[in-house]
Amino acid sequence: MSSPIRSPDGNWWDNPLASTEKKWLGASIITAVILFGWMFGWMHIGDQNPTGRTYTTSSAQYRKQVAAYKEKATRTEQGLRPAGRDVYIAGLQFGFDGLPVVLEAGREYRVHLGSYDVQHGFSVRDEDDLIQQFNLQMLPGYEWVVPMTFDDPGTYRVVCNEFCGLGHSGMQGKFVVVEGGS
Amino acid sequence: MNLALLSAPYDEDGFRSCSVTGLKLHRSAERPVKLFVITAVVAMVLGGIAALLVALTRWEAVGLLPAADFYKWLSVHAWSLLIFWMVFMEIAILYVGGPMVLGRKLPAPKLAWTGWSLMVGSAGLILYAVWVSSPPNYQPLLTSYAPLESHPLFYLGAILFILGAVVAALPFFTSIWQEKVENPDRSLPLVTFGAFMTSIIALEALLGGLITYVPTFLWRIGALESIDASWYRQMYWTIGHGTQQINLVAMITVWYFMTYVAGGAEVISEKVSRSAFILYVFFINLGAAHHILADPVVSSGWRMWNCSYATYGAVLASLIHAFSIPAGLEVGRRRKGLGDGWFGWLKSAPWSDPGFSATTFSIILFGFMGGITGVLMGQMQLNTLRHNTFAVPGHFHGTVAVGTTLAFMGFAFYGIKLLFRRDWVAKWMAKAQPFFYAGAMGIVVLAMMDIGIIYGVPRRHPSVMDLPGTAFDFSASAPLFGVMGVTAVLAVLAGAAFVIVAVGSLLFGEETRPSEMLPDYSGLETVGTSAHLTSMRGTAALTAFLLFVLGLFYAVDWMWLARLWEFGA
Ligand code: HEM
Ligand SMILES: [Cu+2]
Ligand SMILES: [Cu+2]
Which 462-491 residues of chain B touch chain A by CB within 8 A? Predict the structure, then answer.
């Protein structure tokens, strides 16, 4: 009998495999192929991917960009209304510059994510249906442009979910999504 | 009180033989093993106290600590348990799996002591740095993500701890080398082989750790101008994830060892089990990419390639062990006439032996909780559903807090008898402990996962029921936090029961002859067909069920993701 604390005897490499174990190996390999294929496939057929263009930047430069964007946007009671399809958001200790912002449902925006200081988290959820949520990372030194289309009007809450200092727990903002054309 | 630590039935050469395992143990190996295990248990006590404080804070009905203290204790919790408890145990496992299983002396025992001193000293330094940190020195938590600054001594401590662990591992490497020189044609026993693979992965991880922490330390003391957040994340996870692979592979090695000693298992295929260990060495490191799946800088191709690469390599290896370990138990017991039918071999198993029950719960819970959630989160798109939510601590408590910790607890229960040769005190407590801990911690893990995934509650957050500056909060998740809080308290008590049995046995346990206390399968005659022709249908059913559950959650997760609004290019 083969013990894990004794050197195996003879030519153990050629010992036959149990047929059940062979079948399991096959099932495992098929599982791995499915996992791999589906993830790649979703890039083409799926509408939810944590992807977009990334640019290197600096805190100072990103601040300037955000300021220029806010300049052009309209201030409303509910928040900024962007002039075009670009929406700039910056994490900072402890808040989101650029939020709240008012967007139209069904319209695709290019959401620019960046940070003025340390790493932050960009965690968005539908206020009325918390299970509808997703999470991305915001890094200083990088500007990440992630296209985003909110299908339904409503309030979408953003919280920071990367520890960024003692005020981390108070770092939040929101998207106000209104009916298209309104 | 007795002098368990000193008593010694060694022969003139310093060897004694173990009546249960039949191993020849040398004094030079046994003493450091005891020392490392005891140190690990001390770390566990500290980490356990921190666990209680942290859990009672996140359970906001209690809301124990203010934010600053919460982060302090969360850092203590992470470092004491994930790093100190685990790494000290792992060095002990290397010495058991290497010199002890090979029946050799520990080469250069001084290095073991030097490594230990360095590790203990630097652990103290890290805890001190955590303790005195206040802005602009932020709590490191586990990850100390630059450019948020932690105390300079923290980085220094991390560097020294890594060096200490490398020094402590050197005697192990030397013993493998000596064995290979003296017996070039003899294969290493499987447990030694597993320990050896663990140590190679450890070296990779520790090297990555130096590459991470040395520049970060230099940056922190001002010798380097700036540090790139993305670089830090990528480098950090070579050690951050690498150490988890050490935990994983060490745990699997313990699984092979314990199912054999406590359950009478056999190795059904040396070829397959060893190949799986080798897969880990080659494939596991880049799997660390799954920590940066929601990051902007690494390209999607890079992310998916590394995750699929790891999916092919590492998940495959894990699936292989997930079959071959229970199958080894099934075959070993069937061939000894211990149970028939589908699950007779499990029914007849020594469930009242905490070494066995802890190991078995570790295997089952690791697979179903840590394993399945890990595979889900390792898919780039599904990762966005969980990244940095409370489901992440849910996942890794499924791997390290029930999986690895339970396996190490079972291993330590046996160590008390086999190495310290003490009987367990409070036997009823020893017997109940694995059930109690697995049950309570299992519920904690489920609650954490659900809180994260259903309500999107962030991790590392002391007050989600009351967010400053807004009416919005996560109070919908309060009932589940209640479940987590209550079971967390129970889990800490179960951890305390382990410490009571362990420490109590060392201090007050009766000297014992283990052969009378532990199952001894060597007397049972092996019957029936050869191993590969023995039925494995019980294991086949269990592992098929595992794949089924994985498939189910996989499908649910993707459907759920598809319901979200559109994002991404
Ligand atoms: C009684 C057992 C335990 C309980 C009740 C417990 C509870 C918790 C809680 C509530 C958190 C905070 C999660 C957050 O707010 O983000 C946490 C974090 C953590 N725990 Fe545990 N835990 C236990 C055991 C363990 C063990 C055995 C390990 C490792 C071996 C461990 C490793 C960690 C780590 C690494 C973190 C994350 C720290 C960070 O965010 O940097 N825990 N635990
Ligand atoms: Cu933040
Ligand atoms: Cu934050």
Answer: 462-464, 467-470, 472, 474, 476-477
Alpha-carbon distances of B127 from B40, B132, B136, B542, rounded to whole Å: 15, 9, 17, 43
Residue A105 and residue A28 share a domain: no
Q: What is the pTM of this model?
A: 0.94
Query: Which residue range forms the structural domain that includes residue A86?
Result: 53-178
B389 to chain A, any CB pair closer than 8 A? The answer is yes
Which atom of ligand 1 sits closest to the CA of residue B52? Answer: 5
Q: Whose CA is nearest to atom 5 of ligand 1?
A: B488
For chain A positions 134-153, those within 8 Å of chain B (CB to CB) are 134-142, 144-152
Decide whether any atom of ligand 1 lies within 6 Å of the B401 Cβ: yes
Higher pLDDT pick, B526 / A101 = A101
Check if B400 has its Cβ closer than 6 Å to any atom of ligand 1. Answer: yes
Evaluate whether residue A40 is within a structural domain: yes
For chain B, how many structural domains are there in total? 1
CA distance B289 to B530: 42
- Interface check for A108 against chain B (CB to CB < 8 A): the answer is yes
Q: Does B187 contact A4 at a Cβ distance shorter than 8 Å?
A: no
Question: Do A34 and A64 reside in the same domain of the chain?
Answer: no
The whole-angstrom distance between residue B382's C-alpha and the CA centroid of its chain comes to 24
Same domain, residue pair A93 and A168:
yes
Cβ of B78 below 6 Å from ligand 1: yes
Does a structural domain hold residue A93? yes
- A-chain residues within 8 Å CB-CB of B559? none
Separation of alpha carbons B232 and B452, rounded Å:
26
Q: Is the CB of B91 under 6 A from ligand 1?
A: no
CATH code for the domain of B58: 1.20.210.10
Residues A171 and A104 in one domain: yes
Residues A59 and A40 in one domain: no
Write the DSSP symbol of residue B564. Answer: S
Q: Which domain covers residue B176, as residue numbers?
A: 18-519+533-562
Spans of chain B below 70 pLDDT: 1-8, 308-312, 514-517, 528
Query: What's the ipTM?
Result: 0.95
Q: How many CB atoms lie within 10 A of CB A129?
A: 11
Residue B4 lies in a domain: no
Same domain, A28 and A64: no
CA distance A44 to chain B (A): 10
Decide: B142 in ligand 1 pocket, CB within 6 A. Answer: yes
A103 shares a domain with A35: no
Ligand 1 atom showing the smallest separation from residue A163 Cα: 40
Digit-coded pLDDT (tens) for B361-417? 999 999 999 999 999 998 999 999 999 999 999 999 999 999 999 999 999 999 998
Asked if B460 lies within 8 A of A163 by C-beta distance, the reply is: yes
B13 assigned to some structural domain: no
Q: Cα dist. B470→A91, A157, A168, B473 in Å?
A: 17, 10, 14, 8
Structural domain includes residue B41: yes
The answer to whether B545 faces chain A, any CB pair under 8 Å, is no
The pLDDT tens digits of the residues spanning B171-182 come to 999 999 999 999
Q: What is the DSSP string of chain A?
A: ---TTSPPPS-GGGSPPPHHHHHHHHHHHHHHHHHHHHHHHHHHH-SB-S--EEEE--HHHHHHHHHHHHHHSEE-SS-EE-SSSEEEEEEETTEEET-SEEEETT-EEEEEEEESSS-EEEEEEETTEEEEEEEEEE-BTEEEEEEEE--S-EEEEEE--S--STTGGG-EEEEEEE-TT-
Q: How many domains does chain A have?
A: 2
Q: Is residue A3 part of a domain?
A: no
Interval between CA A166 and ligand 1 midpoint (Å) = 19
For residue B83 and ligand 1, the question of a CB distance below 6 A is answered with no
On whether residue B272 sits in a domain, the answer given is yes
Same domain for A38 and A117: no
